[in-house]
Amino acid sequence: MGKGCGHLRRFILCLAWGLAAVPAFGAMCQVQDAVAAGGRIWALCGRERIYSTADAGQSWQSVDLPPDVLYRALAFPDERRGLIVGDAGTLLVSEDGGKTWSLRELPTKENLTDISVVKDRAWIVGQNGTVLHSPDGGKTWVQQKTDIPQGLASVHFVDENNGWAVGWMGVVLRTRDAGKTWHSVKIADASWSLSFVYFQDAKTGWITGMFGQMLFTQDGGENWRLVNVPTKGTITSVYRASDGRLLATTGNDLLISKDGGGKWASLDINQWLFFKRIVPVGNSLWAIGTFHILSLDPAKNQWVRLANTPSSQT
Fold it and tell me: Which end of the chain is more exposed for a tag (fewer CB within 10 A), N or C?
């Protein structure tokens, strides 16, 4: 695909091209989230199914999920426990390594968007400022008060007490007491909707969002600065590799930082793969998109498209 697709004015044409290039299977998996856990890579379809692979994508196994729900986020605190959230207050829990999933009752019917788990504590966020908390590994849940109307897209806890949530219209929330109290944080440069928050440690973190927004802190969130990045698309995730390099995902590209997050460069992928996450696979990395997966060849330092993916399963 030509580099002209990177221009905002050509986005619709590029989107149409990308969708036309996708194999037309009736039950095609549109990946919403992905994680590595217990030697497997898990890819959550938007509807009805979750896939996993234990052999770096040579083969995929699927498990059917309850239908008629849009699933949005996935977490595996360990190789046995899994959680999936989706619309209409849906929570699925697995306690057998993802072999089976059961519905768990929640005190909300709002659409849910993300999960963060630290040891036995878990938090879920969603529309209309929804935050839910479980103190017992997902067995019971209570709603936490936020006093905001905006939808929340991402939540991340640094430890069992300190957490962040971000969402629509530049909203940023912070808690220092496990969510008993949430406070709004005003960041002047957070002017558009935010999609992702991540801390690599107690001091260093990122908030990302629409139109190339990337906010960076090195003092635990007391101060944030806007980072210049080579994209105007939505930045959907940030990942710190084992060698210290940072990667960020966006609609048609991957970004890389070799200096701890201060400066970023494009890897010039230039394909509308709608990247969601970076996950580790052995000594490699995968960039997982809605319909396709790129795998990093460590020897050549090149990203190549995986032939066998959840979206190619019939």
Answer: C
Per-residue confidence (pLDDT) for residue 314, from 0 to 100: 59
Residue 19: partners with Cβ closer than 8 Å, 6 or more residues away: none
Domain ranges of the chain: 35-312
Domain 35-312 in CATH 2.130.10.10: yes
Average pLDDT, the chain: 91
Closest CA to 197 of 162, 168, 167, 169: 167
